[in-house]
Design brief:
Blueprint lengths: L1 E5 L6 H5 L5 H8 L2 E3 L2 E2 L6 H10 L3 H4 L6 E3 L4 E3 L6 H4 L6 H12 L7 E4 L15 E3 L6 H13 L7 E6 L3 H7 L4 H23 L8 E4 L5 E2 L5 E3 L10 E5 L2 E5 L3 H14 L4 E5 L18 E5 L4 E3 L11 E2 L13 E4 L7 E3 L2 E2 L2 H10 L48 H4 L17 H29 L2 H12 L2 H11 L7 H7 L20 H11 L9 E2 L2 E2 L15 E3 L4 E4 L4 E3 L27
Parallel strand pairs: 1-8, 1-9, 2-19, 3-20, 6-7, 6-8, 11-16
Antiparallel strand pairs: 2-18, 4-5, 9-18, 10-17, 12-13, 13-15, 14-15, 21-22, 23-24, 24-25
Helix pairs in contact: 7-9, 14-16, 15-17
Length: 610
């Protein structure tokens, strides 16, 4: 399994620049899987989404909520490049830890080693474990990274089963020149050439039929302008608060609740339409960006295409492209393509969730996933051996809410445990799924309920009708003498009252079965069996015998000795339950299983003995 991330690769770059310009991307898509887009998480920043991909957890769960963040408990600021365990080991378990732990927890004799190259968090001890092999971030080419990872797959000494690789392009080009620039096109062209090199090396090392590859990203990119900037210092004194983050999303902290309220009211009255303001308790649930101490008391978020900068000086660092906006904004979405023996070929998938990739990798690796927010059911339709239907989330409304899969209580505060937000039922609303479709769906369901209810009532009515019961009883289950004999033992009635006798007869014993299965109020099967045995005990000696064994030729045989029971077929052969078959004569009152009047009655339609 090889996971590759091309930072900042927007979902539609290949369409914008023309797929035919990238033959190796085209080869992978035509021989593998391509999702319409990958739904990433807010904040749409690099570190948070990369850690969500490898852990399957929301940002508020694993705790990497920004590239730059503040932790009130640690009273420290995190910046890219920080390798302290307390920042990274805050809830999430990356796939390399899950993979390597599988040997210990399952006494596996298979190799479970990981080689992780420059992925955020790979050089940190998490859950007490480093990757088997890892490479810290540095400026080396993608070709060199491919050589390193393929060597680990093909070398007996390393013998890895999981490779994970991060590359910084086309993110850097998108920031510097804008997402639709010639420079970004040139970078993607070079990435395509590197993929061709990867494919050629895999063929050379005979890994092309063994290695499953996922190529994805953390976020997309959108155009920004120098004139589309909001300067935070124009609205409040930054020194009065702890301001953490980067454009376009900022977390603001204060130990003084009143100061937060004052700032919120001040910014609200300023009425800056390009800036969204949320108190922590009011952050939309769709962001899944609320229940963590590293998320600020106040969140400031720029509208798509707008930059939020601390001071005028920061404008000197202006970029032509940026990301971090609302994850419903299409320019925020990254790419997802995959190829390998487990993936379907030439398959166009609906949009996928980045938190589901973790479960997918665990499935491919054959390991047990740690608690996560993803779902294999949402993504397994891209696997070649999956035949189950999948849900098309291609037009999921941004306001839809989905339940957390894992036990949230271990990650959140007591106040959030009682908020009830995780008891909500999934309410995905699909664009284009209008009133007509809802009415049709509900109407179909109601019609099905009415049909089933009507059928059940009809069956109950027929079961209560004496003529119907007596007719089927005589033709299918009991001969007349046997039925009356059993009823005589259960309930004293007038034999001459045929209708009453027939009304009392149970319809629960097939002529060619040796066990009763009849629901009776107040009378168990065991009671009936005992009555039956006593009633016909005297007839036992009169039955035909073969080899000293009694033969069960009709429903009067209910002897407890299993070897004395047999079944007669159309050729007058009796087959005992010890598989001994002998020929006998059929009594006149014993019918064949092929008799035309041999029918069956559903078990719930059988009348109850009074």
């Amino acid at each position: 399994m090889l996971l590759i991330s091309l930072d900042g690769f927007m979902w539609n770059y290949l369409d914008i620049f023309g797929l035919d310009n990238f033959p190796n991307f085209k080869h992978i898509i035509e021989n593998g899987v391509k999702a319409e887009y990958l739904q990433n998480l807010f904040a749409t920043k690099t570190f948070p989404n990369h850690f969500s991909i490898v852990s399957g957890q929301y940002e508020e769960i694993h705790g990497i909520v920004h590239n730059n963040m503040y932790d009130p408990k640690l009273k420290e600021v995190f910046k890219m490049g920080n390798t302290l365990t307390e920042w990274w080991d805050a809830g999430g378990e990356p796939i390399w830890v899950t993979n390597q732990n599988f040997i210990t927890t399952n006494n596996s004799t298979c190799f479970h080693k990981s080689n992780v190259i420059m992925w955020p968090g790979c050089d940190v001890k998490i859950k007490g474990i480093y990757p088997s092999f890892y490479t810290k971030y540095s400026k080396i080419t993608l070709d060199q990274k491919f050589d390193m990872i393929l060597s680990a797959f093909s070398t007996q000494k390393d013998n890895i089963n999981l490779g994970i690789l991060y590359h910084n392009q086309p993110d850097e080009a998108g920031h510097m020149f804008g997402p639709k620039s010639q420079e970004v096109f040139n970078v993607i062209k070079d990435l395509d050439r590197s993929l061709g090199y990867l494919i050629a090396q895999m063929i050379k090392l005979k890994l092309n039929d063994l290695l499953n590859i996922i190529i994805t990203s953390d976020h997309g990119m959108t155009n920004t302008s120098f004139n589309k900037s909001v300067i935070l210092s124009d609205y409040f004194n930054l020194k009065d608060y702890i301001v953490s983050g980067s454009s376009p999303v900022w977390n603001i902290f204060s130990n003084n609740t009143q100061k937060i309220d004052m700032l919120y009211n001040k910014l609200y009255k300023a009425n800056v339409p390009q800036m969204l303001i949320y108190k922590k308790k009011d952050i939309p649930l769709k962001f899944r960006y609320k229940n963590n101490g590293r998320i600020g008391d106040l969140i400031l978020l720029g509208q798509p295409g707008w930059n939020l900068v601390r001071t005028k000086t920061d404008l000197e660092l202006f970029f032509k492209g940026n990301h971090g906006y609302d994850n419903v904004f299409p320019d925020s979405w990254p790419i997802f393509i995959a190829i390998g023996p487990v993936f379907k070929k030439g398959y166009k998938s609906p949009p996928l969730n980045n938190v589901d990739i973790y479960e997918l990798m665990c499935e491919i690796l054959g390991i047990i996933p740690a608690p996560n927010n993803g779902s294999l059911a949402n993504i397994k339709h891209i696997l070649i051996n999956d035949k189950s239907p999948h849900v098309d989330f291609s037009n999921v409304d941004a306001k839809s809410e989905t339940l957390l899969k894992i036990d949230y209580y271990q990650y959140t505060s007591p106040e959030n445990q009682t908020s009830g937000i995780f008891s909500q039922v999934t309410s995905n609303r699909l664009n284009g799924f209008g009133k007509f479709h809802y009415i049709l769906l509900v109407g179909s369901f109601l019609a099905l309920v009415i049909i089933l209810t009507s059928g059940f009532v009809l069956v109950l009515y027929k079961c209560s009708h004496p003529n119907w019961r007596s007719r089927h009883m005589r033709s299918s289950y009991f001969n007349y003498y046997q039925a009356n004999s059993l009823i005589d033992d259960l309930t004293p009635i007038d034999k001459d009252s045929e209708s009453l006798a027939e009304e009392k007869r149970p319809l629960c014993q097939n002529q060619y079965t040796t066990r009763m299965s009849c629901p009776v109020i107040g009378i168990t099967n065991k009671n009936i069996m005992g009555i039956w045995n006593n009633r016909f005990e005297q007839e036992k000696s009169a039955r035909p015998k073969l080899g000293g064994k009694n033969i069960c030729l009709d429903t009067s045989c209910q002897n407890n000795n299993i070897n004395e029971r047999g079944i007669i077929d159309d050729n007058n052969l009796v087959t005992f339950e010890d598989n001994v078959t002998k020929s006998v004569s059929r009594p006149k009152n014993v019918r064949s299983s092929k008799d035309s009047d041999f029918t069956s009655v559903p078990i719930f339609a059988l009348p109850l003995l009074q």
